[in-house]
Amino acid sequence: MELQKWVDKGYDLIVNFGPKVLGAIAIWIIGSWVIKILFNTTKKILDKGDYDISLKKFLLNLLNWALKIVLIIVVLGTVGVETTSFAAIIAAAGLAVGLALQGSLANFAGGVLIMIFKPIKIGDLIEAQGEMGVVKEIEIFTTKLTGLSNKEIIIPNGSLSNGNIINYTSLGTRRVDFVFGVSYDADIKATKEVLMQQLTSHPKVLKDPAPSVTVLELADSSVNFAVRPWCKTEDYWTVYFDVMESTKEALDAAGIEIPYPHSVEIHKEG
Q: Is this prediction's pTM over 0.90?
């Protein structure tokens, strides 16, 4: 008799909930398929449009999560969970989680602000929160940078949107700042000609804005020249290293002495 009772209960459960469970599984499979189609269709539309790549990735992530949440609610409703009660539970839980995860909500809001005002985009070289790197991804909560030594840097969007950002790419050009010191015995005019020759002969130094060579200061043991070439952002380090090397060789060839010890300074942005 006891066994028969359990068999009857099992049968009742299968009869009452079996179709609901099967229906929920079917809805999950079909819903996932529909979400995939909607995601791919939206991706194709965004790819065809003239949208920023950062915005596209952000919107696609947001769409993916929103559709999955809707699908989960529909599946639970199919199983028999009261959706109105479930919505109330979600609201209450959302409030509690929201209070506990204020930082995450701030990061989400920061991501939205970055998408709206676009202080940065994928591919930009930036400096923020004490880190420097190329923007790799702008996600819902974080932004990923690739550091100059090929390390991955992850910065919360809340901190990023509320802090100072130095964008080295947005203007398209950069100035490379050198300070070269020569002996007091050196002829100033001849030295300026040698220094300027290294700038004007380099193929990646821009003619506009024009490079400049000026006497910066009369230091204790040297006459210091400010050497200021301009270049495209992506050519910064090529110009820096090439000009550094060629200038030393040119000064030596011209017999212009560089006092020792002597440091060559660069602009702090480098």
A: no
